[in-house]
Amino acid sequence: MTNRKLNEIVVHCAATPEGREVSVATIRKWHKARGWSDIGYHFVIGLDGKVHKGRPLSKTGAHVRGRNRGTVGICYVGGVSRDGRTPKDTRTHSQKAALLNLINSLMAEYPSIKLISGHHDYAAKACPSFPAREQYADLSGAVAKTSTPPNVDERYRYLQRLLTAAGYPHGLADGIKGPRTIKAIKDYQEFMGLPKSGEFDKATVVNLRVIEETVSPRRPAVTAVAFKTAAFDRISTEKAASGTGGTLTTLASIKEGADSVGGIVATFASHVPDWFVPVALTGAALCFGYTWYRRDKRQREAQEALA
Ligand SMILES: [Zn+2]
User: Fold this and answer.
1) Complex ipTM tops 0.90
2) Does residue 148 have a pLDDT over 60?
3) How crowded is residue 227: how many other Cβ atoms within 10 Å of its Cβ?
């Protein structure tokens, strides 16, 4: 039993040649040699169909990068042909039966498990050398049907966001083509002098994309440039307004700004009590130490996750 919230089983192969038996102890040794705390899988199924326990189910495994939390890792011995390289579903009859049994009993014990996947569903690998999702679809299916999201078009949702950013609100960016979105598109098209199709057609998308940079969180640099430009605009406006003496005025106002910043620092310094500096230094040291500890821990976890 475990308190871990389990939602998925991920099937693996040991990537060992067809017909060669490999013990849990050996796989554990391989994984420990990578600096891991224990074997990465929770269960290993030998050629004879015997199920061996690996890492306790109560512990997060190390078998699928980015998805170890909430998953159970099951590995069958084999997975490549006798040449030791070519991916192959080498499962013996006993292994197939044992795997199905184990999956069924896990799902019975932990009803929160809704999905059976293969390692290759999350990584560019052949593991486990057979389409696990497809093969166990009817096991996952019953629940998967209810959890299927509505027909949301991500591209449509994104364009809706751009439309809002352009100043044509339409309610929620839900990815669904509704009357409010269509009206907002038409309003935008009218303003831009485009054909009023009510669709995100090519001309509309091209125009909307112009404002993409200011919306996308991945491009903060553009926003920074925009701010800078605004600042320059302000300065040049001031310059223009004050005529020939503009530059001097601008310089003076910059100097004034600097003085006031200096003034704030000076005022603050004169009000700092004696205990402030040692307390601040101790605090900074503790913060630094803690950050260092967290980083080290994260690195160890990341290493384990490289399954
Ligand atoms: Zn794998």
Assistant:
1) yes
2) no
3) 10
Say how far apart CA 284 and CA 282 lie, in whole Å: 5
Q: How far is the CA of 238 from the centre of ligand 1 (A)?
A: 65
Q: Is the predicted pLDDT of residue 187 greater than 70, yes or no?
A: yes
Which parts of the chain are beta strand (E)? 8-13, 16-17, 43-45, 51-53, 71-76, 79-80, 115-118
Tell me the CB-side half-sphere exposure of residue 74, using CA atoms within 13 A: 24
* Span from the CA of 146 to the centroid of ligand 1 (angstroms): 28
Q: What share of the chain is helix, strand, coil (3-state, %, to 5)?
A: 55, 10, 40
Cβ count within 10 A of residue 73: 26
Written as six digits, the tokens of 25 are: 């102890």
Q: What is the pLDDT of residues 198-230, one digit of tens each?
A: 998 988 988 888 776 555 544 444 434 444 444
Listed range (10-19, 137-146, 288-297) with the worst mean pLDDT:
137-146
* Domains (range + CATH), the chain: 8-147 (3.40.80.10), 154-215 (1.10.101)
| Residue that the structure tokens 């390289």 belong to | 85
Collapse the DSSP code of 300 into the 3-class scheme (helix H, G, I; strand E, B; otherwise coil) and give the result.
Answer: helix
* Rounded to 5°, angle at Cα 113 from 107 and 116: 85
Structure confidence by residue, pLDDT tens digits, 67-95? 999 999 999 999 999 999 999 999 999 99
Residues designated as active site: 12, 41, 119, 125, 127
Alpha carbon distances (Å) from 137 to 5, 64, 132: 21, 20, 8
Ligand 1 centre to CA of 2 (Å) is 23
Kindly give the distance from the C-alpha atom of residue 120 to the centroid of ligand 1, in angstroms, as a whole number. Answer: 7
Give the model's pLDDT for residue 222: 41
